[in-house]
Specification:
mainly alpha, 386 residues, elongated
């Protein structure tokens, strides 16, 4: 304080999260006693001072990924670190797309890019990309030009995990279930996450809030953090069941809006959550949940004009669901099977009309068995062509 009291100076404090309380105490005293001194602090968590202004640092490569590998600062960093490790290295027409995919997969995180680039002497860009896409891959390096405590993302994530309360850890591990982001409502239903916990996780940069197409908010967990969070779960069956139930309800509730004034809005919630819907469907199929898989596969097919996956993906879901062992246990279950037969027959008609007709007739019988005249009428129209 004595040295700086009468000086115009800028004090830079780096990595304050390591000793956050001490940095805060120092700066409170310093700024009060030295009015002509300013301070810049880097930290993974805010210091929570009244004079603090927080500037979130966006990822490299631009605020919106994927980025152009020929003009991306993320690719430039990758090339700089790869050159340090392997000698001469450059972005070319042959490797540009792969290098861009690597940086985008790492969401433009500088440390992750540095660690990945250090593997260029032993892995081609394509092999490195395949390695990074594996859910169990660990990003670490013994050769990257970084401090010892930064040689593994796992060590950094372990540190971030240790800062969390028990409830925050429970929520973050559950949020790892989501694929491609989630809404606040989904986080609450699946992970029991309230706004306070979401705020705490966002404050520590473990999740990010992004605007959605309708002016609301979506959240995402970086893939590296997501895989780390999933590994913290001993048994994720309950969470995955909640995840499936939430997105099945979303699909079926929106399906009732067919041919109504809100129909054009379908593309927003369904399109944004296709990753989650696909993951939920895959889980139901793996669990042998015939009724759930049939309901999801048939329900999402209603959105194909706007946002659902390709015809091949939709057909694969339907065929896999129809192939599961199925025993009628309720009206809902029978209707799900009948509807899946109907939708599956429609999709199959151009390539195999005879098989499609058999499938549609099977659905007709099931609809009639439960007295669903509307469903039966649709089947009759399809089979007879009337």
């Amino acid at each position: 304080l004595g040295a700086l009291k009468d000086r115009h100076a800028l004090l830079v404090l780096d990595n304050c999260e390591q000793v956050g309380t001490a940095c805060r105490d120092l700066l409170v005293s310093l700024l009060a006693a030295c009015p002509t001194v300013s301070a810049v602090a880097t930290s993974r968590v805010p210091l929570e001072m009244s004079a603090e202004e927080v500037f979130a640092i966006p990822p490299m490569g631009g605020a919106i990924l994927p980025s152009d590998p020929f003009s991306s600062d993320a690719t430039a960093l990758f090339l700089d670190r790869a050159t340090s490790a392997a000698g001469v290295y450059a972005v070319t027409e042959h490797n540009a797309k792969t290098l861009g995919e690597i940086c985008d997969l790492l969401h433009g995180l500088p440390l992750a890019i540095e660690l990945a680039a250090s593997w260029i002497p032993v892995l081609s860009p394509r092999d490195l990309l395949d390695h990074l896409r594996r859910a169990d891959s660990a990003l670490a390096s013994d050769t990257a030009l970084v401090e010892e405590r930064h040689r593994s993302l796992a060590v950094i994530l372990d540190s971030s995990w240790s800062w969390l309360s028990a409830s925050e850890r429970t929520v973050l591990s559950a949020l790892g279930i989501f694929v491609g982001g989630f809404t606040r409502e989904a986080a609450e239903a699946v992970a029991s996450a309230d706004l306070g916990v979401l705020a705490a996780l966002a404050e520590r940069s473990l999740i990010q809030r992004l605007p959605d197409a309708q002016g609301g908010s979506r959240y995402q967990v970086h893939e590296l953090v997501r895989h780390y969070a999933l590994r913290q779960q001993e048994d994720d069956g309950t969470i995955r069941a909640r995840h499936f139930a939430y997105f099945l309800k979303l699909v079926e509730s929106l399906e009732t809006s067919w041919n109504t004034p809100v129909e054009p809005l379908w593309s927003n919630p369904i399109g944004a959550d296709l990753g989650n819907i696909g993951a939920a469907t895959a889980w139901a199929l793996a669990e042998g949940d015939a009724e759930g898989a049939l309901r999801m596969a048939a329900g999402v097919d209603a959105f194909w004009i706007f946002s659902s996956p390709s015809a091949a993906v939709r057909q694969a879901w339907l065929e896999a669901a129809l192939a599961l062992p199925w025993a009628p246990s309720s009206v809902v279950g029978i209707r799900a099977k009948a509807k899946a037969c109907h939708v599956g027959g429609l999709r199959m008609w151009p390539s195999d009309p005879a098989a499609a007709q058999r499938l549609i007739l099977q659905g007709l019988v099931l609809f009639r068995n439960i007295g669903d005249e509307a469903g039966a009428f649709e089947e009759v129209v399809r089979v007879t062509g009337i």
